[in-house]
Write a structure and sequence with these properties.
Length: about 230
Amino acid sequence: MIHAVLIFNTHGKPRLSKFYTPLSALIQQSLISQIFSLISDRPSGVCNFLDAPDLVFPSRTGTKIGFNLESPYDGTTSFESVRGNGRETEGSSSGISGKGEDDTRVIYRHYATLYFVFVVDGAESELGILDLIQVFVESLDRAFENVCELDLIFHFDDVHHVLSEIIQGGLVLETNIHEITACAQNSLRNRKASSTSSNPLIPNLLTTPSFRPGRSDGGKGWLSVMGV
């Protein structure tokens, strides 16, 4: 299962965070900070996946951890101290992750100023997830025509839509880039058509020659376009 999909830049600023495992905002912030610390210090020549048993996600065996959320998170508290304030329920005292399929792994790729990170359990193939990251990046590149970090900031809804075409509920739905791109573009056209139908005056105002800045008729241009 895919627990989370994250994108952040080389300064640790998150540009996308999608968690498929229910976690509180406090835990999500701490996970993002710790994952960035794990991969930002790794040299470029090492492999792109690593085991991360200290990252806390509910396991397949039903083990869960409770956390003391009364103390505010200041951004510097280590995740081990957060875990120490919690209590284990419905499981053993050996921790949140067991062996095999319950192991938590971080798989990432570094593109320019961005890290694309998938947090998965042991049931997922590392090489398969690396290919899935490439599919995600190429789909974004086609959707935005040479995607950059600013696209992720100003068009985050489109980024989430592309991701939802690939993954739902932590499971992979589609890996065909052409299908993903076609669905994303079709959704964008539908949203534009819906916006146009709900605001019929907008395209007329933008395309009618009588509505131009600096005209002497002032408000008469508005009235003529509106049919008054």
